[in-house]
User: What shape does this take?
Amino acid sequence: MSIGDGLWLLIKGLLSLFDVLHDCMSHEEVSNAIDEVLSRVVALSRGKDARDSHERRLAASRALSAGDLAKALSLASQAVLKAPMLEENDAIDNGVSLALGLWLRSEILLKMEKYALALEDLKLALKERLPVKMRAIYYWRMGNCYKGIGETTRAKVSYELAHRLLKDENARNILDADITSLNNLSSAPQSENLEKEEVTLAAGAKTNLPSLSNLVKIIEEENKGRFAAANCDIKTGDVLLIESPYVACLLPDCYGTHCLHCFERLEAPVWCPKCSAVAFCTISCRDEALRTYHKYECQFIDMFIVVEVLVDDKPGTTLRGVFTFPVVGEVARLKVCRSVYGFCTKLPYAGATLRSGMSILSHVALRMITQAGLETSLSIHSKYISNEVKTVDSLIVNDIEGLSKKSKVKSRKERLNRNKKTSKGDKADKVDNDSKLEDEISFKEKLELMSAQIYSLCTHSDQRRVEDYLKRVLMAMFLNECLKKAGFFSGDVEGNIVKSN
Assistant: This one.
């Protein structure tokens, strides 16, 4: 059976064992089951629902009137996440459900004295075409937000705009009192210094292992393998390692409480334009996720989550680690091979939609591909896992003792200095070019360096059982199918999803 285009991107070092697995994959019953299930892989995610958003917004308004601000904020945030994009459903809220949800949430946040968050919601609501008839109150509320954060000049401008638009004389009198109150406030912004203290490595960073201190060295010996050892005396409190993860995925249980991208706890979550399953803490986090991985994962996000189903009429049974295929949108009975999977040959699923049952590690494997994109993934593959041989690049070798050294690689600083010396032009152009060059080299070198470390890790793959490899192959085939239908290999995300449905 064919593994399919792009599968090698998802299975590190597996092709060398293809012959071992070939007999299992050639099993007719297993092969037919795999073909049938993969043919049913379709987009499955919680989409937008204007009616649901409308009802949650009304519930939030009632909670606000009752003085339950925490409940009101939760319901208003749900309304925002559920709201479709502008004019996608004109039959409800005249197509501006998102703007109205943000408007209500800004009012709640203002009452909670979360002025900066309320101000951000107001700006977003205006972008989502907040009705013109609400503009006077909009500028008034914006003035209150600026006043709350101590920006009196902007508060005064906002109040004056509101004053021009207000028609009601009583409202104007109240607004005049707010304008007068600005005279008693300091014009300096009242902002807190929330910057975290920077943590640095003791004795500086190693040239080719920048996350590791010079106090530590990496050694590789035939009988002991690869390990870290002290390079000199180390004191209590010395920081030896600082490293951001190469890839990280938010646990599904935290989708509603933490940012999908940076994992910060949510206060006023920002929506995904396509699904309502995940949320972000800021627009910048949302846009970065959409630019890279989420545009491919979004349509299948619900299929990746383990759900409870009825198995042999016993509720509350999960299939994680037992059944690794999705059977979407129908009640199914699927015969599988006992000798391969090691459990009963018939699994009835009554009244439930079965998802993939993939573990968080499977999602991490997928994210390694989606966050890099096809071009970068191909480049990484050609450098580190092609020809069935994992290589250790000289960037790493130069800082590992006990191995034969490859050619020395100039440090990033040396290459930057060399390029600076050869560049021509006036001083302004030179500075601009150097800055762009440094950013480009920094990004490419960071990706190359981290990939070199990831793909040179000891895997002990020779000790893995064939049954375990088979399960990993099947999951990789499923993820590969999702990537194909998400347009990862062709670049046509929307077109492939429409075809798959």
